[in-house]
Structure formats: structure tokens, C-alpha cells
Structure prediction request, 237 residues.
Amino acid sequence: MNRLATAVRVRAATARHRGSAVRCPLCEHGFDRFKDDWNRPDALCWRCGSHERHRAQWLLFERRPQLLAGAGSLLHFSPEWCLRERLAQRPGLRYVTTDLDRSQDVDLHLDVTALELPDGAFDAVLCSHVLEHVPDDAAAMRELRRVTAPDGWCLVMVPLALDRAGTYEDPAITSPADRQREFLQADHVRLYARDIGERLDAAGFTVAVVDLHAELGPQDAARHGLLAADLIFLCRP
Ligand SMILES: [Zn+2]
Prediction:
């Protein structure tokens, strides 16, 4: 009943906001605007629930088709429904989902700091909004590199504070309330800045920073509801 009620609500909102001012590349629907999230306006797709970062990832795949075309397997950490729907349907792609905490609806339960996988196990790895929850992010980054195939890629995104000179972390800040105040969410253990690229580099990756907001330009970025802070770190072993 709950699922049915949600489906009815989503269908009604999708119809009410149908339009052409903005477009979600994931579900390929157009709207008058995106839906506000609790902390920012124009954030979510009415239909598939995509956030700015999910749309940025999908637009990257559309703009660099060789990324998915060259991948026979993809490991997705903490898979979001909107991306999962598209990736799981992709012909020829062995799509595997993993989450440490979620008990249902994922294929594997893996600790990102100690992945029970062989070296080079996946051609592609999606690790978005995970590392800010992980105390030992250096171990996680090394593991991500290890399981990425030598000619593969690993896409990393995190909440970024672009106004900060460096990543902010303090192991003394442990209470949920303090973490919420300092790191923006009660279960975040740090607030990354652009220098996450150096950490990924130190883990052995060659890192390309993709700024899709700039690449698309202000008009197209706004039409797809992208955030300037949503840089994509495209990492190769
Ligand atoms: Zn959508």
C-alpha cells in the first residue's frame, strides 16, 4: 500500500510539473523546475528522485560513451535507485551492487577499507558519497584502486567545500551533533576540499577532475540542475 501510495504521488507530481525548463537525463523527463530538497532548492527529479550528482554522473557517461562501452563489469557502492535502474538494464554489463549497512537489495556486503575481491575485479567502480563516512579513507582509496582493473576507471564523488583550502577533519569530533555542525551531516567524519584529488593520487590513482558544470556552461548546467561543487574525480589505476 505504501509503495502504491508513493507511486501515485510520484505520478501526480510528474504530471503537475511536466515542462521543458529543466530535464532529468536519467529518466529523460522534462519539468517546469526540480523539486526542493530539505536544504536546497531545485535539487531532485520529480519522477526518479535523482539528485544533482546523479545527473552529473549520467551526463558524464553520455558525454564520454567510451567509459561504459569499455566496461564489462561495474561495481556500484551504495547504489541509488535512479542510477541503478539505468545501469542494471545496460546490455553486456555485469552490474554488481554493494553496501556495508543495507541488509537487502544489494548483491554484496563489502567494507570499502577491506574489499573481499580479487585485484582488478571490476572494469568500472562507482563510489559516490561514501568516503566522507569512512574514518580510514586512505585504506578505502587503496582498496578502490586495487579492485579496479588496470585499464579501468573508478568514479569518486564526495560532498566538497570548494571554499576551503584543504580537507577538514578532526578525530576529536565524534558526536553526531558536532559532526552535523562541522561536517554537514551527523555521520560524516570529515569535510573534503578539492585536495581529495591528492589523496586519491597518493593511493596510486591517476586522477582527472571533471567539472561538468563548467563543461556544459551555465545554461545547460542549470537546465540539468547541476551544482558547481559537484566535481567528479575520474580515477585510473
Ligand atoms: Zn529523473
Remarks:
- The pocket of zinc ion is lined by residues 24, 26-27, 29, 45, 47-48, 50 (CB under 6 Å).
- The chain has two domains: 1-50, 51-236.
- The chain is about 30% helix and 20% strand.
